[in-house]
Amino acid sequence: MLWVWLVMLQFTLHNQRRPESIIEDNINKPWRPLPSGRISVKGANYLLFVTYLAVSVLSFQLGVITHFVVFTGLVCWYNDLGGSDRSGLFRNFLNASGYACLFSASLRICLDPSGESRIGDRATSWTLIMVLVIFTTIHAQEFRDEAGDKARRRQNIITSIGHSRARLLLVTFMGFWCAFIPSWLGLTFKGAFVTLALGLWTAALTIWGMVKRTEKLDKKMYLVWSCWL
Fold first, then answer.
1. What is the pLDDT of residue 1?
2. Residue 18 carries which DSSP code?
3. Contact in structure between 110 and 123 (CB atoms under 8 Å)
4. Could you tell me where the beta strands, DSSP code E, fall in the chain?
5. The pLDDT value given to residue 173
6. Is the pLDDT of residue 226 over 80?
7. 146 vs 3: which has the higher pLDDT
8. Helix H or strand E segment including 43
9. Coil, helix or strand for 40?
């Protein structure tokens, strides 16, 4: 979907253009355009401006301008105002809130582009569930980025409660959501098999990381978590 692609481009440009982000990416993701020198900060800012124009017009046409405005505020808070660096819980909250905008806007565009009718209660409940899933498990991404986070002195769940506790917290919530969501959706074991398998795989890799941790393992865990999500 073009709208989702554009707002994610907007977020990515905000996220990667700041000096501290470039320092982090030089360690964690040197292949990205800015640390690898494929684009300058000035070029990224220009592209961001063009993206703002494009997504503003598209949001107005699709009837999701409110979602876009709220999402933009969260993006600026997360990146430009340091919201992602000061607290692990607040970082997760901003992540979850941003996803809430993406989920609800996508539902609006797909189910009711005219904006004349109300999105159903079950769809709203599903959006809320997914927001809670993000809030409680998004720190799966932080284990692979720990070196860069330390370089920019970012506060996250790992620095707040410790490495092992952060892993146990992730495993606990993965187990809860793997049990709750299929039940809420009314899925049979066969229908939920792929989700359960990916969830258990994520949990297993997370636990194994407590025994024998490597950057490669943490990257694999995050990839499996992303597929589960």
1. 72
2. S
3. no
4. none
5. 93
6. yes
7. 3
8. helix 41-62
9. coil
Q: Are 68 and 105 in contact (CB under 8 A)?
A: yes
Return d(Cα 33, Cα 16) in angstroms, integer: 9
Asked whether the predicted pLDDT for residue 115 surpasses 60, the reply is no
Tokens 């709750």 belong to residue:
180
Mean pLDDT value of segment 165-184:
91
The HSE-up count of residue 204 (CA atoms within 13 Å, CB side) is 7
Burial tier of 5 (Cβ tally within 10 Å: 0-12, 13-18, 19+): exposed
- In angstroms, the CA 16 to CA 99 distance is 19
- CA distances for 135 relative to 20, 36, 61, 110, 138, angstroms: 24, 31, 30, 24, 6
| pLDDT at 177 exceeding the cut of 90 | yes
Q: Which of 124, 149, 162, 159 is nearest to 215 (CA)?
A: 149
Q: Quick one: tokens of 122?
A: 């079950």
The pLDDT of residue 124: 80
- Cα Rg of the chain (Å, integer): 19
CB 26 within 8 A of CB 35: yes
